[in-house]
Specification:
The structure is a single chain. This protein has 5 helices and no strands. It is mainly α. It is elongated. The protein starts with a helix and ends in a 10-residue tail after the last helix. 13% of the residues are buried.
């Protein structure tokens, strides 16, 4: 996930600039967190997108349209979104380091 996000982040950054590139990373991290909520707590997976798309859309939209009734959805999405962002930021910083190939020497 980190390498895929890095590839897309790099392309977005080249196309529209550094600030919007990192804005994309923040948005993608938040969507990852929401996806984890859908899979882990609503017990939905990719098959549901094919077999029951309207049920999946209804279940995913409920926290968006009535956030006060779904605090766990927002808490889980925020927690895992921040975790994704922290992991990616650490990875991106390490990948940009000039000594990244010599980590075993440090």
């Amino acid at each position: 996930a980190v390498t895929s996000l890095s590839a897309v982040h790099h392309r977005v950054e080249l196309a529209v600039g550094r600030w919007l590139g990192w804005s994309f990373v923040v948005l993608a991290s938040g969507l990852c967190g929401f996806g984890i909520y859908i899979g882990r707590f609503l017990r939905k997976n990719s098959w549901d997108a094919l077999l029951e798309p309207w049920e999946l859309a209804r279940a995913a939209a409920a926290p968006l349209f009535d956030p006060s009734s779904h605090p766990r959805a927002w808490a889980v999405a925020a927690l895992f979104g921040v975790l994704t962002l922290v992991v990616y930021s650490a990875w991106a910083k390490r990948a940009a380091s000039p000594t990244r190939y010599y980590w075993f020497i440090e």
